[in-house]
Specification:
Blueprint lengths: L2 E3 L9 H5 L10 E3 L7 H7 L4 H10 L7 H11 L20 E5 L2 E5 L9 H19 L3 E6 L3 H10 L5 E8 L5 H8 L6 E7 L2 H13 L1 H6 L2 E2 L6 H18 L7 E6 L4 H11 L4 E8 L4 H8 L1 E2 L23 H8 L4 H12 L4 E2 L4 H5 L5 E5 L2 H15 L5 H13 L6 E5 L7 H8 L20 E4 L2 H11 L3
Parallel strand pairs: 4-14, 5-6, 5-8, 6-7, 7-15, 9-10, 9-14, 10-13
Antiparallel strand pairs: 1-2, 3-4, 11-12
Helix pairs in contact: 3-4, 3-10, 4-5, 5-6, 5-10, 10-11, 16-17, 16-18
The structure holds pyridoxal-5'-phosphate.
Amino acid sequence: MKFISTRGNAPAKNFTEILLGGLAPDGGLYLPEQYPQVTRAELDAWRKLSYADLAFAVLSKFATDIPAADLKAIVSKTYTPAVYSNGRADSDFTQITPLRKLEEGVFILELSNGPTLAFKDMAMQLLGNLFEYALDRQHAELNILGATSGDTGSAAEYAMRGKRGIRVFMLSPDGKMSEFQRAQMYSLQDPNIFNIAIKGMFDDAQDMVKAVSNDHAFKEKYRIGTVNSINWARVSAQIVYYFKGYFAATNSNDEQVAFSVPSGNFGNICAGHIARMMGLPIGQLILATNENDVLDEFFRTGVYRPRDTVHTYETSSPSMDISKASNFERFMFDLVGRDGEKVREFWNSVDKGGSFDIKDSPYWDALPKFDIVSGKSIHQDRLKTIRKLWADYGVMVDTHTADGIKVGLEQRRPHLPLICLETALPAKFAETIHEALGLEPERPAAMVGIENLPQRCEVMDADVARLKAFIAARVPS
Ligand SMILES: *Cc1c(COP(=O)(O)O)cnc(C)c1O
């Protein structure tokens, strides 16, 4: 299986070649040359598989350059119940992503029972094990540099902690994360994890990462890499749970379902789109945004118009406070019939701070074929949904999942079973849960009192030279 760039101007590569890299050299994102097709016989066989075996079956179609026995070992180590047992006490952790029935035809797919209580663990845990495997074979090292406002940083650290050949340098805005998020990251004592609290905002931290990445000599000398959401291995790991959720919600492969997906960078729903292109009978993909509604606007009007940071709101579903949806380019590549030149033209405008409009083009007419509908949920909707689920079903959901449920129930076609993806546990966003219900969300036993653990963190001015010196002092050159 070869992977090509959405901008059509980069050589095709295989899975392990793109594993450690980011963007393609032409600035595009990698996608399979053709989507592998899942036959009816395969679907029937896959229905009976455990999560790890299903992940092996799906990933085998992409990672054709990893020997099967090796891939099997990596996947079995990644998707074991011991890693995904932080959810509600009555969850069936042997399923890895248990399906919770709310009522006839309405389900929640639990994706947030991993180490950091967000669905990002599902892909990041695999990435950690794939990185370790690939680096081991190349006798190489990788120093991951990132900036986080919360979820991504902790998921990356828990996936990479204690891994051979990998160090993580994670920048976060000093004093801006919740006490719980801080404790999650800063209490890690693994010698390969370095937390750096920047005296500034998230954007300052992000700018420092960009400045270091743009210093190509430094980047090469210290083998700097990233783990951002455009990484193809992350997307491919997310395809697996669409299959798992579908099998759990249906009795036969003749049925169709709808998935509702709380969206920010379009990574999660992109995996759903690809699962459908592979042959999974998904009737509808429902995209939910919060107040930052760039993607909702596109699916309603055909205009893709990322906002600047001043017009990106801070909301109570903060992991969706995104204006530029980096993975959206992958979907657009398919929508324009895989015409790299067209994608280049659109993103020429986007990269300059502009927009594009497909309303008066054949692409607008092609859009319904992909059956993605969208909607938006704001703070008051979020509170209402959290209250309704608590009152009707005794189920507490987090703010992002609430956005997905609200839009899912609004947009689904009648009689189509609805699977709502749970992207985080309520314990991560206790403040809004408290506002909605006047209750403290339950915490997994392993995380009670983590705020009292000793913390390890370097506080630093937003100074790129200091960051470089900090890295250089810890990486043998
Ligand atoms: C990252 C994240 C999202 C958004 O997912 P995308 O793949 O960026 O669309 C939604 N909810 C939570 C809790 C997240 O951490």
